[in-house]
Design a protein that fits this description.
The complex is a heterodimer of chains A (about 180) and B (about 100). Chain A is elongated. In chain A, about 35% of the residues are buried. With about 180 residues, chain A is an all-alpha fold. The longest helix of chain A has 21 residues. The N and C termini of chain A lie far apart (about 75 Å). In chain A, α3 crosses α4. Chain A has two domains: about 70 residues, RNA polymerase sigma factor, region 2, helix turn helix motif (Rna Polymerase Sigma Factor, Chain: A, Orthogonal Bundle), CATH 1.10.1740.10; about 80 residues, Winged helix-like DNA-binding domain superfamily/Winged helix DNA-binding domain (Arc Repressor Mutant, subunit A). Chain A contains nine helices and no strands. Chain B is an all-alpha fold and about 100 residues long. Chain B has one domain. In chain B, about 30% of the residues are buried. The chains are: A mainly alpha (about 180), B mainly alpha (about 100). Chains A and B meet through α1, α2, α3, α5 and α6 of A and α4 and α5 of B.
C-alpha cells in the first residue's frame, strides 16, 4: 500500500511551487545566500512534516508562516545593512535601465539616495518595505511572514514610505512639476 | 468604502470641486498598492488627474515603489534547482518525522 500518496500529492502541489518565493524571502530575512538556502530547506522539511495538518487553503500563507517560525527558531544572529555596496546599487540601477519598465524612471542619484534612506529606517519599518516593495508580497502575505497583523503592515509600510519620500523631498530628488 | 472614508470623501470640497486632498491622502498608498475598493479607486484616480499637489505626491510614491522594486535580486539558479531537488526527494519520503534525507 502506498501510505505516502495522500501526503506527497499536497506537498508537491502546494509547497514545491512556492520554493522561489520562499528563497526570495529567506534571502531577505537572512541576508546570506547559504543561510537562506538552509532556511528554505528547513521550511520544506517542516512543511512536509506538517502537510497532514494543512487544510489546503492559502498555501502561500501557510508556508510563509512556517518560514517565519523556522527563521525565529534559527535565532537570527545579525541583519547587515541593506544594500550598502555602491557597486551593487549601480548594477541594479543599470539592470533596471535596461528593462522594459515604463511606469517610472530610475535615476542613479535617486536610487543611491533611496539606499541611504533605507539604511536609516528602523528595524520595525525596514522589513516591511523589504518584503512588500522589494520582494513583492501583498499586505496579507507580508503579515504572515513577519508575524504581525495586516493593519500593522500597512501602517508601518506607509510611514516608512513617507519617511523615504521626505528624504527624497529634502534632497530635491522627488518628482516635480515642469513649469 | 468604510464609513470613515465615506465621510471624508463626501464632505464639502475646499478647492478642486472633487474629493478633498485629506481624504485622498488617507488612502493614497493603498490606492497605489491596488488595495482599495473600485469605488475608492475611481474617486482617487479622478482626484489625482485634477489636483497637481496630490498628483505629485502620487508620482513620488510611484517612483519610490519602482526604484525599490529594482532591488529585488534574481535568484541563483543553482540554489533554486538544489531546493527543488531537495523538495522532490522529501516528497518521496514516507514519514512525517524525517528530519534529513
Amino acid at each position: 500500500m502506498n501510505v505516502d500518496a495522500s501526503r506527497r500529492t499536497p506537498f508537491e502541489q502546494h509547497v514545491l511551487p512556492e520554493i522561489e518565493v520562499l528563497l526570495h524571502l529567506a534571502r531577505s530575512l537572512t541576508r546570506d545566500d547559504a543561510d537562506a538556502e538552509d532556511l528554505v530547506q528547513d521550511t520544506l522539511i517542516r512543511a512536509h512534516n506538517g502537510i497532514d495538518r494543512f487544510d489546503g487553503r492559502h498555501p502561500r500563507a501557510w508556508v510563509l508562516t512556517i518560514l517565519r517560525n523556522a527563521h525565529i527558531n534559527r535565532h537570527r544572529r545579525r541583519r547587515p545593512e541593506l544594500l550598502r555596496d555602491p557597486d551593487l546599487t549601480f548594477d541594479r540601477a543599470s539592470q533596471a535601465a535596461g528593462s522594459e519598465r515604463t511606469d517610472a524612471f530610475v535615476d542613479l542619484e535617486l536610487d543611491a539616495e533611496l539606499v541611504r534612506a533605507l539604511g536609516t529606517l528602523s528595524e520595525s519599518f525596514r522589513p516591511v518595505v523589504d518584503v512588500v516593495d522589494i520582494q513583492g508580497l501583498s499586505y496579507a502575505e507580508a503579515a504572515e511572514v513577519l508575524g504581525i497583523p495586516p493593519g500593522t503592515v500597512m501602517s508601518r509600510l506607509h510611514r516608512a514610505r513617507a519617511r523615504l519620500r521626505d528624504r527624497l523631498d529634502h534632497t530635491g530628488l522627488a518628482p516635480r512639476s515642469h513649469q | 468604502m468604510n464609513r470613515f472614508l465615506r465621510r471624508l470623501f463626501t464632505r464639502p470640497s475646499t478647492g478642486s470641486g472633487m474629493v478633498d486632498c485629506v481624504a485622498v491622502g488617507k488612502v493614497l498608498q493603498r490606492y497605489l498598492d491596488g488595495a482599495t475598493d473600485p469605488e475608492t479607486a475611481a474617486l482617487v484616480s479622478a482626484h489625482l488627474d485634477d489636483c497637481r499637489r496630490c498628483g505629485l505626491e502620487a508620482d513620488t510614491y510611484r517612483t519610490i515603489k519602482a526604484a525599490l522594486a529594482t532591488h529585488r535580486q534574481p535568484l541563483p539558479a543553482d540554489a533554486v534547482q538544489r531546493l527543488r531537488d531537495f523538495g522532490l526527494q522529501l516528497a518521496q519520503t514516507d514519514g512525517p518525522n524525517r528530519r534529513s534525507i
